[in-house]
Amino acid sequence: FDPRHRLGTHCYGFPKTGPQRLRFLLQSVTDLRETLRARGSTLVVRKGKPEDVVNDLITQLGSVSVVVFHEEVKE
C-alpha cells in the first residue's frame, strides 16, 4: 500500500483513498490472501513507497530475474 494514496489530489483536494475505499481494498486483499492460501500460495503485502518496497523485496529474495508492475494512470 502506497501511503501517498492517502494524500489529496492536485485538483480537488479530496483523498485518493477515503475510508470506504480503504475498507474495500483491505477486505479485497484479505480475501485474495485467503484464496491463495487455500490453494497453497501466499500474498506479500507491504506498506511504503513502491520504489522502496520492491527494491527491499528484491534484496531480501536475492534471485529475482523479472519484476512486472503497473503504473497508476494520472489524470
UniProtKB/TrEMBL annotation:
Stretches assigned to the Photolyase/cryptochrome alpha/beta domain: 1-75
MF-aspect GO terms: damaged DNA binding; deoxyribodipyrimidine photo-lyase activity; FAD binding
GO BP term, example: photoreactive repair
InterPro entries attached to this UniProt entry: Crypto/Photolyase_N_sf, Cryptochrome/DNA_photolyase_1, DNA_photolyase_N, Rossmann-like_a/b/a_fold
PANTHER family: CRYPTOCHROME, CRYPTOCHROME DASH
PROSITE patterns in the record: PHR_CRY_ALPHA_BETA
Pfam families, A to Z: DNA_photolyase
UniProt superkingdom: Eukaryota
Keywords for the protein's UniProt record, in alphabetical order: Chromophore
Lineage of producing organism: Eukaryota, Metazoa, Chordata, Craniata, Vertebrata
Entry protein name: CRYD protein
UniProt key word Plastid: no
